[in-house]
Structure formats: C-alpha cells, structure tokens
Amino acid sequence: MLKKISFIFSLFCVTFMTAQVTFVAKASREKVGINERIKVEFEVNKDGDNFIAPDFEGFKRIAGPGQSVKQQWVNGKSSFSKTYTYFIQPMKRGQLTIGQAEIEVQGQVYKTSPITIEVTAAVDNPDDGNGNRIDLSDAIHLVAEVSDYKPYVNEGISVVYKLYVNQTTNVRNWRSLDEPKYNNFWSQIIEIDQPEVKQGTYGGSNYRYVELRKTVLYPQKSGKLTIEPLSLSVSVEVPSNRRDFFGRRLYDVVERTISAKAKTVDVKALPEANKPADFSGAVGKFSLNTSLSKTELLASESLNYEVKVSGNGNLRLFSLPKPKFPSSVDVYDPEHDEKVSTRLSGLRGQITDNYTIVPNVAGSLEINPVQFSYFDASEETYKTLTSKAQVIKVNPNPNLASANNTSATSTGNSVASTGAKNIISTTNTFNFIELETEFSAINSNRFYNSFWFWLLIILSLGGIPLAILIKKFIRSKSGIRNTDHKRANKLAKRYLSGAKQSIGTSEAFYMNLELALHKFLKAKLRIETQELTKEGLRDKLSAKQVNDSEIEAVIKLIEKCELARYASEANQDMQTDYKQATELISNIDKQL
Questions:
Q1: E strand intervals along 229-275
Q2: DSSP sequence for 296-307
Q3: Residue 256 forms beta bridges with which residues?
Q4: Could you tell me the CA-to-CA distances from 195 to 215, 507, 543 in Å, in that order?
Q5: Helix H or strand E encompassing 580
Q6: Is it the case that residue 106 has pLDDT exceeding 90?
Q7: What domains, with CATH codes, occur in the chain?
C-alpha cells in the first residue's frame, strides 16, 4: 500500500512539473560593442496569446519579431516551445536593460526577467547577432587619421575622421552613434560647418570622401594611450531586384553601422635633463613680451604692466610667469585674457596677464626681467626666454599731504634700491585733540521744567521722524548688500560671457563654461593649472572657509562640463548650468 501511495505521489509531481509554464528571455551576448547587434529570444513552453515585447529603450530594433514553433515527441513524451526573436543594436554606451516581455497562457499573464547588457566602445570586427561577423563591403570606410603617433606629453596632435565612399554608392545621411571620450587627452574640436566632398584614394582605389570631424589632442601623460573609435549610423542606397516602368533599377535605403578603428599613440615623457626650475609645462614655440601702459606718472597714480606669451602650442595648459615688483608699489590681481584659435597644427594665439600697479613714493622704480621656459618638441630641447627690465619714473604728487611729500623728497631716487616707505611726521599731528576737560556743577533743581524734562518731551514728539530715519538707515544697509551682490554678479558675468554667447551649442558652451570656472578659481585662489584637481580645489576652498556645499557644487559642475562637452544637451539644461555657474561664482567670490 505504501509503494502505491509513493508511486501516485511521484506521478503527481511529474505531471505538475510537466504542466508548469516557463517563459524566459535570452540574449546572444551580454557584453557588446556599440556597433554590434544582439539576438534576443523570448521562449515559452506553452501556447500563449497576447505577446507584448519590451520597448527596448536604449536600443534600435533592426528586425523582428520573428516567430517559430517547435513541437517534439520523444519516448512518448511531448515538448512544445514558441519563440519570438528580435535583432537589436545599442544606441549608447553603458549598462542598458532589456525590459520585461509579457504573454498570456490559459488566462494567466507571465513575464520574463530583465536582461542587463554592457555596451562598450565600437569593436573592429562587429558581430551580427548570430555569432557571425558582419562583412563590410568596400563601399564605405570610416578612417581616423592621426598626425603623430609618437608625440611628447602636452605636444599637440590632430585626429581627422574621414568618410570614404566609392564612386557607385550614394550616402543619404549619417549620425553619430558614439563619441570618443579621449581619456588622458585634453581635446578641442574644430567645427566643420558644411562638409565638402573631395576626391581621393583609399587602398589604391578612387573614392569620394568628406572630413566629418577634426580634433586637436594634447596627451596629458606618457605611455601608450588609446584614441577610442568614432561610430556612425549611415543611410546607404543599395540596388534592389525591382525596376520601374522604364526598366531602371530601383534602390532601397538601408542603415549600416561603421566605425573607425581605435588608434594607439605612444606618448613620450618630457626629458628631465636640463629641465629649467621654472618650467610650468609649456610645449610648442613661443615668444615672451612685457610692456607698461606708461613709463612716467605721479605717485599714487596707477598704470598697467602686461606679461604676454604668444605662439603655437598648449597655450591653455600652462601658467604665465609671475613678475616680482618692488616693495614700494601696490599690486592687484592680474586680469587674464586669452586670444586663442584652434587649428590642426594646435592652439595658436596669445595669453596675457595684465597687472594694475600703484607706486606709493616718488623716485625711479625698476621692474626686474621676467623669465619663461618651454619645451620645443621639434628641436627636442628646453628654451628660456627673458624679457627686458622696465623702468618707471614716479614724480611727486602735489595733491598728497605735505608729510608724504616731505618723505618722498627725502627718499629721492634711492626708493628702488632701498625700498623706503612714506614717513609720517608727528609734529602738530594730534593738536586737534582736546587734552583738558572743563567741568560744570550739577543743577540740583527738580526734574519738572528742567532741561531733561523738555528734552524727553521733544524726543517723544520726534519719535516718528526718528523711526523714519532708522528705516532709511536699514534700507541703506540693504543697499550696500545689494551693491555687493551686483558687484559679484558683474564679476560672474564677465567670466561667463563666452559661455552665455554659445548657449545652444553644446560643445562650445561647456568648453567656455569649464574655461570660465577654471579662470575664476585660478585668479581667486592664485593657483596654477596643474593644481586644478578635485582634491586641490577642496583643500584650497576649505582653507578659505568656503561652504562645503558650494565646494561640492563647483566640483560637480566642472565634472559635468568635462563629460558633457561632446554630449547633446537641451537648451534648458544649458540655461540651468549657466545660472548655477553664475550663482556659484557670485557666492564663492563673496565668501572669499
């Protein structure tokens, strides 16, 4: 009896397991390049209805659904499966998820589990989703041409992306699928407004080609660095087997994904031998010039001293030399200006620091020469430039106090060598202070009708005017704060003027926004370009007692600029980022 019960129980379990519905999703691969395809199958072991596919967010549907049914009898047992097949291609890099599919079996709804796909940069030999390699014909080629595969650190190289099309193929349009990240490079894109079709050769054959993109790169470290590939989706006209009424062949438009192969650059470190002590990372060919706005003036008047470096090289990646001024002058933070254009040969132009200085005493002042060192990559040697010494003639200012004039006259032309300061004469200086006090007897009369009685009456009656005066005083204080706020906003807008003008163009906007934040922080914190790191900024701003929230906000905004320079952003996002940058510069400036 016990054996019969066990047999019936086992038969019941087998029957139950056989009747259980399974609905699963399978992907051909879980790690793919952005130019590869994925085969996705949704398989159910019972006949069902009302199949609902996922929306494939982040993917482009290439083909599907394809439906197949398989039913077998093996050793008296039947098996059934229905499969829905899709071919999809990722549209962006990162972790993408294929959502749940649904199907109804015998009135019950079943769902698959989501599938996570890791999408990487484009690969040289893409998969078609069936495990086969896509055979790209000789009709279209995307090529990345690198100007120099063995540059020095901070030496500019160019990458030109060319699309080659043979003489019998027509390309309707193209769009970028994936942007190279240029890790460990400082990059600058050269805008191409209208691509021009040119004639050329590729692999010994004649092709038409267009230059789609030009980029200037400055490697930031030595060693083997990889330039990631650019991937495009191209609409191509291909001949079909159909013909029109006149017998002419008809063409179909198909989408094809192509990518330029990754390039490896072997970056050489700058030599340590004979490196100048004042070398700040400048690589290229430069000239140095210093100038004064005027060479003669009165004491306490201001003039401008300009330090300018011109040439071709990494102009935005080094600091200008700091001049040493005599101790008898007041010096204000320099106004930094950059007039730089981007060409395939690199950055070209000039950068300038303009100092405002105010001599305090009369005499002859000499500003010592300025030195600037750079590495000439073409000659593989360091060079040092030295400016000329500048002499300023400071005349006595008749508008200054007599004591100051006396001091200036006594120092004469020895100010520059001795660094003497103004001497304030103490003769009769404090005669305006009363040194003796006159006392009067206290009036012992009663309070009524006394002086204090009538004074309190008058003060009581004058309470309203006094309240009005207090209110005006409070408003005046508020006006001072408003003035400070306007000054801070004016400073922010001066730094962000370039970013504001380029709102609507993602690349230019985020480049200018990042440059504005860098210029502001360098000027206010008096730091060099190489100190603009996350930890360096945190330490410097914390030491200046800037709020932690402001510090994190400005660092995150700089990171967003670095990531978003080549990403497509909506105008509303740019407006928001511009507004945030304005507030951050204003707030940090007031705290500093």
A1: 231-243, 249-259, 263-267
A2: EEETT--EEEEE
A3: 234
A4: 15, 18, 50
A5: helix 571-591
A6: no
A7: 20-120 (2.60.120.570), 140-267 (no CATH), 284-418 (2.60.40.10), 479-591 (1.20.120)
